[in-house]
Amino acid sequence: MNLKNEHNLLKTCLIHSKNENHNNKINSEKFRKIANNNSFSTHNRPFRLSSVALILYNKGQETHSLFIKRATYSGYHSNQYALPGGKKDKSDITTVQTAIRETYEELGILIKPKEIIGQLDPILIPISNYIVFPYVVFLDHAPIDKPDKTEVEECYHYPISELLSPDSEIQTEVILNNTPVEVYAYKIQNQIIWGATAIMLFDFKNRLKNIKAIF
Fold first, then answer.
1. Which CA distances in Å does 148 have to 57, 102, 191?
2. Are 44 and 54 within 8 A, CB to CB?
3. 214 lies in a domain?
4. Which of 14, 23, 80, 109 fits a 20 to 30 Å CA distance from 199?
5. What is the pLDDT of residue 71?
């Protein structure tokens, strides 16, 4: 599957509609069981800003993407599967700059501003007190990742057809604050991706349905 062949349509379906409340209004709520569950929130402070990059690139005639497994640390998202990215710091004027900087720091992959082709809806994560801004990137080459092992345990590359397959969507149980919770998730490269990252992947996959040539 080659999304590059549908590049203009892909950019069109990624045009971001402004949402003053920063709430993701995608069609299905089933992936949002964790991210929107305020009962798991321990914060009463204003949300902090962060950004991630959903990276696409062509390898041969097929479009690929990637995700990471975060390193072990004392935080809510330790060892979770995620898109490369992180919190906005004082040196970042925009959340776009955050996505570019964090991807380079974590994976050594340099994103050119012109390679950012669109934006998914921002995600509220009460449990870690963040609003995450996901940007979609189409690199002009297959990247070579060099993970910073203090932040990233592993980087997984996969053909986008694996995400688009109906078999990728599963139900699973996760433990959150010592509470078992049934969630919808994606199984990609035999890894289970749930929570905010699964919401972003669902949003991306849902938008691709506007490109009839893909399905």
1. 21, 11, 20
2. no
3. no
4. 109
5. 87
